[in-house]
Amino acid sequence: MKILTICGLGQGTSLLLKMNVQEALQSLGIEADVDNSDVSSASVENADLILAGEYHIDSLKHLDTPVIAITDFMDVEEIKNKLQKFFKGE
Amino acid sequence: MDTLINVSKWLADNIFGEPALLIGIIALIGLLAQRKSKSAVISGTIKTILGFLIIQAGAGVVVNSMLSFGPMWQHVFGIEAQPLQAMGTDNFIAKYGGTITLMMTFGFLINVLLARLTPFKYIYLTGHMMFWVCFVLTGIFVETFGPDFSQTKILIIGSILMGIYWTLQPAYVQKYMKKVTGKDAIALGHTVSFAAWAAGALGKVIGNPEQNTENLKLPEGLNFLKDSNVVIVTVMGLVYGLGAILAGPEFMAQYSGDKNYIVYGLLQGLKFGGGIAVILFGVKLLIAEIVPAFKGFATKIVPDAKPALDCPVVYPFAPTATIIGFAAAFVTTIIMMVIMGITGFYVFVPPMIALFFHAAAAGVFGNATGGIKGAIAGGVITGLVISLGQAIFVKYITPTTVSDFILWGGDTDMFIFGSILKLIIGIFS
Question: ∠ at Cα B186 (B111, B193), nearest 5°?
């Protein structure tokens, strides 16, 4: 499974989100590759799941990949809850 | 004994003197310290080295695409031709990349130490900005003292200055960061700090937080602006194409050759945007392993510290203010571009990342204390500092070293604090 975290430039914020997603996955006991990238590259990265800030959701919704909107990038609990919901729903 | 000296000399020449490998070693140590799996250690180390090499490749594209930009617009404004003199980011980091990376590492360790020992409990985690600030600081030193100046001295002085900057920068903005986020949990760790602070301070004087930007309704059509690659390429294509049209076919023929001169101009703008996308991809790889290692280490030493984070963390608190900040900065830089061009002072290159991301953050800070007027002030301040700063750095402070980076990546803190640094070290040169 490949998870992608997205921000505008693919530099700072998506890297923070990536670290917190990895922490959340670890506590859920789920194995996945997590990488971070920018909005432009999201469509060619072939991810199974994308996590991004709410203000990028409009630019990502044309993709076939499911997208989870994150309100607070630093809130590992929020990320954990949303990931758990996603994996239960599958 | 001789063998030992030979071995250490060989290591110094071939490993530590080679920035790409030195960076790989730093990543390797970080990965081993986190007790990562064998495959994660190997792939992480290689990706970090790859990131460094990709930055060099992208920088070459950017420098090449900019060769005709200055002369073209100088011809349009009737200014005497002054081609870009920079040695190029690719050549600069080939020579000083080791110093820059070690400065990031030691500067960060000083940041952790200061956070542990002083009341300023902030840990700077914006890796790409750590890289670029060390890069510009090294450029200022090399420009002031010459290429033969000891890199060890640059490293020692630079690490101390960076450690202090990364500790105090989040601290002095925190007053307004609390207003923006409504709590005291995270800090701003970004080179836009001067503009953010000034927007907060000015917003309080001229504006009213009750007139909040978030009560405004903006047209949806601005959505495409969120894709930075599209924005950079579009704007640079337009500015380059317009310059080619105004400079005329006879002047442009020396650059465009057989190609139509307008098409040539547009293509150069596209190449510029493409080169920046490559550099950003390289930086992403370069810091992807180093930042988590830094974070893990800092959490152990200073568990109660607040993380100082990249500027987009403030966007969700006032999305409309980000667009107002960007628009105000854009208009300001266009006016500055025309004024500086007509007076023959300088041909300005619009740095889209600073306009787009940094002015947006300044807009959010301005809105927190001064509503709509504050958000506009944030954009105007960012626009003024980056246009005047770019002119002063490219002309006087770093003309032969890092000025090609300054054209697209120069930011308010680099210009404000870099100018102060230049004034101080200028006394000793």
Answer: 65
Per-residue pLDDT tens for B244-279?
999 999 999 999 888 999 999 999 999 999 999 999
Indicate the pTM of the whole model.
0.91
Compute the distance between CA of residue B334 and CA of residue B348 in angstroms, rounded to an integer: 9
Task: Return d(Cα B160, Cα B44) in angstroms, integer.
Answer: 28
Task: Tell me the residues of A at the B interface, defined by beta carbons under 8 Å apart.
Answer: 7-13, 15-16, 19, 36-40, 53-56, 58-59, 71-74
Complex prediction ipTM:
0.89
Instruction: Provide the shortest C-alpha distance from residue A1 to chain B (in Å).
Output: 16
Runs of H (alpha helix) within B1-119: 2-11, 19-33, 38-66, 69-77, 89-117
| A65, A2 Cβ separation under 8 angstroms | no
CA atoms of B239 and B120, how far apart (whole Å): 44
- Which among B291, B284, B301 has a CA at the least distance from the CA of B125? B291
Cross-chain residue pair A55–B316, CB shorter than 8 Å? yes
Domains of chain A: 2-76 (3.40.50.2300)
Question: Which residues neighbour B278 within 8 Å (Cβ) at sequence distance 6 or greater?
Answer: B54, B57, B58, B61
> Which residue in A51, A45, A37, A44 sits closest to A85, CA to CA?
A51
- Using the beta-carbon criterion (under 8 Å), do B126 and A12 form an inter-chain contact? yes
Q: Which of A13, A36, A38 lies nearest to residue B313, judging by beta carbons?
A: A13
CB–CB of B223 and A58 under 8 A? yes
